[in-house]
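Q: Predict the assembly, please.
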Amino acid sequence: MAVVVNLEDGRERSRAPSLAPLTALVGDDLKRVNEVIIRRMHSPVALIPQLAGHIIAAGGKRMRPMLTLAAARLCGYANGERHVSLAACVEFIHTATLLHDDVVDESDLRRGLATANAVWGNKASVLVGDFLFSRAFQVMVEDGSLDVLRILANASAVIAEGEVLQLTTANDTETTENAYLEVIKAKTAVLFAAAARVGAVVAARPKAEEEALESYGLNLGIAFQLVDDVIDYTSTAEKMGKSVGDDFRDGKITLPVVLSFLRGGEEERQFWRRTLEDLDQKDGDLAHAIELMTRHGALRDTVERARHYGAIARDALGIFPDHPIKRALIELIDFAIHRAH
Amino acid sequence: MAVVVNLEDGRERSRAPSLAPLTALVGDDLKRVNEVIIRRMHSPVALIPQLAGHIIAAGGKRMRPMLTLAAARLCGYANGERHVSLAACVEFIHTATLLHDDVVDESDLRRGLATANAVWGNKASVLVGDFLFSRAFQVMVEDGSLDVLRILANASAVIAEGEVLQLTTANDTETTENAYLEVIKAKTAVLFAAAARVGAVVAARPKAEEEALESYGLNLGIAFQLVDDVIDYTSTAEKMGKSVGDDFRDGKITLPVVLSFLRGGEEERQFWRRTLEDLDQKDGDLAHAIELMTRHGALRDTVERARHYGAIARDALGIFPDHPIKRALIELIDFAIHRAH
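A: Predicted assembly structure:
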């Protein structure tokens, strides 16, 4: 797809922004991350590598380990493999949370494939998640950095706390934009932030660079999640590996809903309460929801909010000199936002 | 209850062995552990301290944190509170595994009280378990010892691995004694071992003392679990907070079953297969199971096995000079085994 994209820094790129430049730059490292993942998820208990392999192989974009790798390289880390094994830890933690999420959400499909809980049951998913989480800490201990352990232990606690918060506030159409933002920070952005920061730590760079990369990751993660929430109302199954309207059917309160609810009248609020709080949904409700979102500019403005966080992420990289990795990380922001189109 | 117990070292004690001496010696420390637990399980997400408080307050004997405290004191640790905060970590990890276990086992009762999953649902139990686990690692990172982090990360991985193993081998009446032993090591004994070893680590004692306490904990843990498995067929609800026959009803393969199966003829094996593999149970089956166990000496010999591991635990302490804590730890072994009577 060759389109001209107006970048916010005034430059133009004669193609749609993509992951390709970043993948090209850290591809060799990422291959070794995948090898570490396969080696370290091994266990004599065969179900562990089977189940973990299913979800890890199912793919996803390996965004988080790529952030660790890219951050390490941007900070000049060159002589070692610490970034590779810590990127694997980040992916293990991410995978453990996905396994538990799918149990909690009772999901059957992830990226178009049956979830582990659908194939092996909830029990196995809970326990293999615990194993991967413990394994991540074992690998971090081998690495030996208390800073890394602190960053990822803190991230894990915030993630779990956020999941519990989401559990107790789910299906509340009066969720504020701030409350929603706290949930997606905890759910998504904090691990992006930690992944990027860990890369700076292995390069032993000054705190300012660690913090810059953490801020980049946090704001990129928020932008990604916001756009994901838009895509759930606009995409097609082929594009996402899930169908349009999954969030709607689950009664998930995402920013497009929050904005539509705030901008609509009492009759519309009744509609949102019926469909998302009471989960009383009939044919045509999803189409009506999308119509309301469009009428109120809720999808467009959610993308605008994503642009805002993307801009913060971009500025966070300002302390780094020009570098192919820096350019690829900036393109990653554009990629995150461009997915909404 | 005043009985004369013949101790294996030839001495006599004019009362039943109990936890009391240990509790008296580490009681002040344990009070502070409880304070740390309450402080560190706090979260602005109210459900977290509610749910965690429910299971932690429900009690249990605080065996694992007591082992950490006792080991630290036995090793002469005197100037600091590290043993207190690490004992809290051990209890957090234990609590996290209990929360996930109750989800996996679909348990409604624990120690006579409704389980957290019965009150708040599986989802909350999974996520609060994740939070406590992460919180334990945060507290360990604050403590700053990579040795401690390694010990407890390894223990956690083995526990999770053991739980998955148990999931895949559950209800198999042909489980060998060795396979059963591996399961209870992973499920129970490894955390006892880690808890005791951590105490030696904070006291900065030679590896030999760390390893002695680890061996003590491991073998004590095995003895405890073996006796628990006997009690499940012999106790009364008042004594245990659970009814006789819970394991039987769940089809759990414990050593009394393994021995009865091995020692019985084909007709008896059919009985075990029907009741524990197919879970096809009728009135009188539990009584018949207990009768078979008694006929084959399976309960008696399971206690004998427990004595064997208890003896190893006692000998492991041989490198320590006489000390009130050492005597209390030895009485703890006797207590573990005496519960079968």
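The interface with chain A takes residues 43-48, 97, 100, 103-104, 122-124, 126-128, 130-131, 133-135, 137-138, 140-141, 144, 146, 149-150, 153-154, 156-157, 159-161, 163-165, 167-168 of chain B (CB under 8 Å). DSSP finds 16 helices and four strands in chain B.
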